[in-house]
Design brief:
The protein has about 500 residues and is mainly α. It contains 24 helices and 2 strands.
């Protein structure tokens, strides 16, 4: 056991140090607007007054009724998001108040403390990715490639920087999955019941945290029931031979704690939204009927859309598909859990009327599950290493590296510019649908558009000139100049990176 701990330490520490170094250098220079900012308003008021409710004069400034804040039957206003989101920001804002002696709703010093929180969450995320990878390989090189490729050759990097929900939703789902399948392993091998109980209990805590952040994660309950049913019937090897342990121990250490968290969720919804089953999302007119049965547009978009394709934004998944047969054969319980969770979240989010998650970069609602269903990328890497044919290995390896490096460069382009830069380009257009610039923006990913703009900005030949800039009318050119001339980079330490002229 001590040898395994030392081995984990040797691989984990260097990777986490690299992650911290990259994320420290790439800290954003602006605070991500939108949902999380509204939640931090409640955190500020909670720390200042000890009250949860948002004053009406503040809530009404955030847009339409129900867009960010829900007005309950008693007239009080609350963020429509899960209660735990508010509490997660308490340490960062409390530290801001201690360090600066002040805590305002809009604070110039807040950015630094939120960035520091993201550094901690990123390190924890890297640790769980390492723990998961080591379940399937002992090759430190494969572990490092998987972790760094998943974090930095995908749109995940954007959400490691953005001070918004996705960074810790993904962390919680990774942790939930890791402890759940670890508990299954220990039960199935009947090696250490106490450790198995502890793993299932920790899994229940992270499952509860997910549900308290976002009610949609309660949709994983049917998948969990199916997994346990398969464990019971033998489709997956039985977790234990004893009838009492088969039912009682999982109930005590997973299902009972999970039910307690669900009761807390129901009580919080009742307090905030007037009903234990209310979610807070239906008061806004645009989301009054948030779900529908037609999932085809969303499924098509998640596969093929330039702005929301999981393969374009998370190319690690593309290679993981090749590893899925081996992954399923070697790690059937893990594969079934990953597939059921992935299918559940895909279908639920496809039924959501705002499945695009706009305004945002990439398929953000699917981000938390993408690293888990991409775990077979490890099997693909192991298969690639073991290929006896050097020519085939060189071609496949070179193609894999080339695609991941290209995606990494696109993520650098996105990170260099303001979070909503592509939306700002859309806003300068008079004809937002049929003009050639609008078609260019609609038919290319944000990474490609940002890359083209940066090439243009630094004086290199770029499709941005012919496809966008040369097609603007005089008024649009003026608005474009007003947007881009004062443009600063979105790096905390390098805000003047874009000052260089053509």
């Amino acid at each position: 056991m001590e040898q395994n701990d030392r081995s984990l330490f040797r691989v984990a520490v260097p990777i986490i140090v690299v992650v911290l170094a990259i994320n420290l250098l790439a800290m954003p220079a602006e605070e991500y607007p939108g949902d999380a900012h509204a939640v931090r308003v409640e955190t500020t008021i909670l720390l200042d007054t000890g009250k949860w409710a948002i004053p009406s004069e503040i809530a009404e400034k955030f847009g339409e009724r129900g867009q960010y804040f829900y007005q309950n039957p008693n007239g009080n206003w609350y963020p429509k998001y899960g209660t735990l989101n508010t509490l997660i920001y308490v340490p960062a804002l409390w530290l801001e108040r201690v360090a600066t002696g002040n805590l305002a709703i809009d604070s110039a010093s807040r950015l630094l403390f939120l960035n520091l929180l993201n550094l901690i969450l990123s390190a924890a995320t890297a640790l769980y990715l390492i723990l998961l990878a080591r379940r399937y390989t002992r090759s430190n090189a494969v572990v490092a490639i998987f972790v760094l490729a998943a974090l930095y050759s995908t749109f995940w990097w954007n959400y490691l920087r953005a001070q918004t929900f996705e960074i810790y939703h993904t962390l919680f789902l990774l942790a939930f999955y890791y402890h759940l399948v670890s508990g299954f392993d220990l039960q199935r091998n009947d090696t250490n019941r106490r450790k198995s109980d502890a793993q299932l209990f920790i899994a229940a805590i992270f499952f509860g945290a997910l549900c308290l952040c976002k009610t949609v994660y309660t949709a994983l309950l049917p998948a969990l029931v199916v997994i346990w049913a398969l464990l019971k019937t033998g489709s997956i090897p039985p977790v234990t031979r004893k009838h009492r342990d088969r039912f009682l121990r999982p109930f005590l250490f997973f299902w009972l704690p999970a039910c307690i968290f669900l009761c807390i969720l129901a009580a919080a919804n009742w307090y905030k939204f007037g009903s234990p089953l209310a979610m807070g999302y239906t008061q806004w007119e645009k989301e009054s009927h948030p779900f529908h049965a037609n999932v085809i547009p969303a499924l098509w978009g998640f596969l093929f859309s330039p702005h929301h394709s999981v393969f374009l934004h998370f190319p690690v998944l593309l290679f993981a598909l090749a590893g899925w047969p081996n992954f399923f054969r070697k790690h059937k319980p893990d594969a079934i859990a990953a597939a059921l969770f992935g299918l559940t979240l895909l279908l639920v989010n496809s039924m959501y009327i705002n499945w695009r998650g706009e305004s945002s970069y990439g398929p953000r609602y699917l981000l938390p599950i993408l690293p888990i269903i991409s775990l077979p990328f490890i099997e693909y890497l192991m298969w690639l290493i073991e290929r006896p044919n050097r020519i085939a290995k060189s071609l496949l390896g070179g193609g894999t590296i080339a695609l991941l490096v290209y995606s990494f460069l696109l993520q650098v382009s996105v990170n260099t510019l303001p979070f909503f830069f592509c939306y700002s380009l859309k806003d300068i257009l008079d004809d937002k649908r049929f003009s050639k610039p609008a078609i260019y923006l609609r038919s290319h990913s944000f990474g490609t558009i940002d890359r083209d703009f940066l090439l243009y900005k630094f004086g290199y030949p770029s499709p941005f000139t012919g496809r966008f800039l040369d097609q603007l009318n005089a008024a649009e050119v003026e608005r474009f100049s007003g947007l881009t001339e004062p443009l600063r980079s979105n790096y905390y330490w390098f805000p003047n990176l874009l000052r260089e002229e053509k």
